[in-house]
């Protein structure tokens, strides 16, 4: 019992000075550099680190050996000794050589922004898919840096930088790590295969999918909970939820859809992480509609929207039907609300205002359901009629001899699904002959 207590104590014993380098290029947007450092503080606190102090250096270009200047390294060493720090966290990505040099000079754990984000993900991953993706991202990041990770990996007292695969003797040899990466990729491919099958079943059943995307801590999980009355974990911290969460939502017409909360984006999201989490993030790519949730209460909302747009473009989802949802309007003044705008369709809501949620549900339905069309279907085609009820909103029904006549609100894509079942469709009469389905019914 004593051992466990001691381990827990060491696990939260990271005391860090945070360091940011502002180059000539970054100096053009000092507000962005300051925001990035503030975000690093939040990331460190989310990882369970005690932040002692922050330090910045203005420099033309980064130092290839030390990243920051040699004089700044000496200043950092004195500050760490004075404050009793045992970790230095850098706001930018470091090379293996820079980690090695800084570690030798400072004799503390050296962590960069990418490794810090990966560490948070290691803490938050709960599902098999999330755990595989985190380990794959960590190994892909560490492989080219092994020579600079000697002391970090030998500090097995716990804390940031040593969770997940960091505790499993990564310093063995590159061949073993490459083998592990191949093994994880194979496991992930199997997970992706299962996910694809689920998506195909959803599409066949005519269930619409809506994806919530946005910057971390924009309020996506809160919105999901309020829209679906589901039990969803909510916390005011970065990456409070990592694994995608899907819940059923009922539209005003009574039709059910699936709404999914995806992992939050962040400035300088590590490339290894984007690559490893592609399967999860592709929920956005497969969605019929994307709700881009924006924290309207932050001054950096335009920058955050840009970051989300870039990640969606990387995924090939930027041309999907999209609504920008400015959330948290209850936290800003009416004057600031009037200034909120975005390209394309947008809404201003508070996740805690029932009338705003009702408006959002109506807007989602209008986007998904499309225009009304008339279908004349033989009454004995029960499978087609059932599919029409699932993918469209049946507004009117009538009987004409042996046929059923339906007036249905359905979007273009799902209209094509219905038309796919038709062999001959007479546009003038609306009379349709249906192809007999063999095997599994749609």
Automatic annotation (TrEMBL):
GO terms for molecular function: GTP binding; GTPase activity; metal ion binding; ribosome binding. It comes from Paenibacillus pectinilyticus. Its main location: cytoplasm. Gene3D superfamilies: 6.10.250.2860, GTPase HflX, N-terminal domain, P-loop containing nucleotide triphosphate hydrolases. Monomer. Associates with the 50S ribosomal subunit. Keywords: Cytoplasm, GTP-binding, Magnesium, Metal-binding, Nucleotide-binding. Mg(2+) binds at residues 221, 241. It is found in: Cytoplasm. This is GTPase HflX. InterPro entries: G_HFLX_dom (IPR030394), GTP-bd (IPR006073), GTP-bd_M (IPR032305), GTPase_HflX (IPR016496), GTPase_HflX_N (IPR025121), GTPase_HflX_N_sf (IPR042108), P-loop_NTPase (IPR027417).
């Amino acid at each position: 019992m004593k051992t466990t207590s001691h381990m827990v104590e060491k696990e939260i014993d990271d005391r860090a000075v945070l360091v940011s380098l502002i180059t000539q290029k970054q100096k053009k947007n000092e507000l962005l550099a300051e925001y990035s450092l503030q975000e690093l503080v939040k990331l460190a606190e989310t990882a369970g680190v005690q932040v002692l102090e922050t330090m910045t250096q203005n420099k033309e270009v980064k130092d290839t050996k030390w990243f920051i200047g040699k004089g700044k390294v000496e200043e950092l060493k004195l500050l760490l000794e004075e404050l009793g720090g045992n970790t230095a966290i850098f706001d930018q990505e470091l090379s293996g050589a820079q980690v090695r040099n800084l570690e030798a000079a400072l004799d503390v754990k050296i962590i960069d922004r990418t490794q810090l984000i990966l560490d948070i993900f290691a803490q938050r991953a709960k599902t098999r898919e999330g755990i595989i993706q985190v380990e794959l991202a960590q190994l892909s990041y560490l492989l080219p840096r092994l020579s600079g990770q000697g002391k970090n990996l030998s500090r097995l007292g716990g804390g940031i930088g040593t969770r997940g695969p960091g505790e499993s003797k990564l310093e063995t040899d590159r061949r073993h790590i490459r083998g592990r990466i191949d093994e994880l990729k194979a496991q992930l491919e199997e997970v992706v295969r299962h996910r694809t099958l689920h998506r195909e079943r959803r599409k066949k059943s005519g269930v619409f999918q809506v994806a919530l995307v946005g910057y971390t801590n924009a309020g996506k999980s809160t919105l999901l909970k309020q829209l679906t009355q589901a039990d969803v974990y909510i916390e005011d911290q970065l990456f409070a939820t990592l694994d995608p969460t899907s819940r059923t939502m009922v539209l005003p017409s009574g039709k059910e859809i699936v709404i999914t909360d995806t992992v939050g984006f962040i400035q300088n999201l590590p490339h290894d992480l984007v690559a490893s989490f592609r399967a999860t993030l592709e929920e956005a790519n497969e969605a019929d509609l994307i709700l881009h949730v924006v924290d309207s209460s932050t001054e950096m909302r335009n920058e955050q929207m840009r970051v989300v747009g870039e990640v969606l473009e990387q995924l090939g989802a930027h041309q999907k039907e999209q609504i920008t949802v400015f959330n948290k309007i209850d936290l800003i003044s009416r004057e600031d609300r009037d200034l909120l705008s975005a390209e394309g369709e947008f809404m201003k809501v508070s996740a805690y205002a029932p009338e705003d949620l009702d408006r959002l549900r109506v807007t989602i339905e209008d986007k998904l359901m499309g225009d009304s069309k008339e279908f004349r279907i033989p009454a004995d085609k029960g499978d087609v009629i059932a599919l029409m009820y699932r993918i469209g909103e049946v507004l009117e029904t009538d009987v004409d001899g042996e046929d059923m006549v339906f007036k249905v609100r359905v979007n273009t894509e799902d209209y094509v699904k219905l038309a796919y079942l038709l062999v001959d469709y007479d546009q003038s009469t609306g009379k349709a002959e249906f192809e007999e389905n063999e095997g599994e019914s749609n």
